[in-house]
Prior knowledge:
alpha/beta; 17 strands; single chain
Amino acid sequence: MSRDTSRSVFKTxxxxxxxxxxxxxNVKTAEGxxxxxxxxxxELIATPEMTSGMDIRSGESSVPPQQEDRHEAVxxxxxxxxxxxxxxxxxxxxxxxxxxxxxxxxxxxISPDGxxxxxxxxxxxxxxxxxxxxTYRESTAYRPGDRAVVVRTPLAMxxxxxxYDLRFSHxxxxxxxxGADVIAVPSAFTRVTGEAHWETLLRARAIETGAWxxxxxxxGVHEDGRETHGHAMIxxxxxxxxxEAPHRDPCIISAEIDLAAVAEARRRIPSLQxxxxxxxxxxxxxx
Length: 287
């Protein structure tokens, strides 16, 4: 499916959540915010990392992993996108794998007909100690992805990333060189790292790539004890923050995405002309 080049402006919304452990309440919360966004005219709506549930308690999870084709959240969001006629990016859900005891931290782009148009498994695992009293070892529970993804939609060429990927600038450069003019960064940044680096990193990735950055976020103190930064954000290709959640509570933020701004930023600073050494899979929505 080729992008409709006759139009260059569309409305996008980033959803901010505070996901708990159980799937059903999270889906209900997300649905309400997505419906609000659609009613306000959004054509592309993006939710944060781990939309369907967050649980960092070691060995205590009460929610068994589900495969994508049987995942209750995925089914609900596919139906919702079809009902509302929207492009819906589910920032990520935990998906069971057939060939690995670990899960995938998977971002899913759902088309207006309810089909899964693209999938991206988070590449960079969050294995750190940030000084908030928690030790994070994402690689023990999740298998990292092995490919970058850009998907061609009627709205834009959309690059997919998740949270900790934000710290790896070469990935974003590769996505931009593969044609991405909008890059999604659904996240669950910790309070400590978010306060220090969230806005700076988002603006840097926008400036480096000359792309729009849309960053839905988790925010607040979660049921599992994690504390996330919130402040969902949309950044222009020139590095300007055009929309930001002013707090950590569930909400939506919106902006008009003008793709002409991408071309203008890249004309003014043609830094993407040097080649990237990173393979990117580019597909049409629905393939």
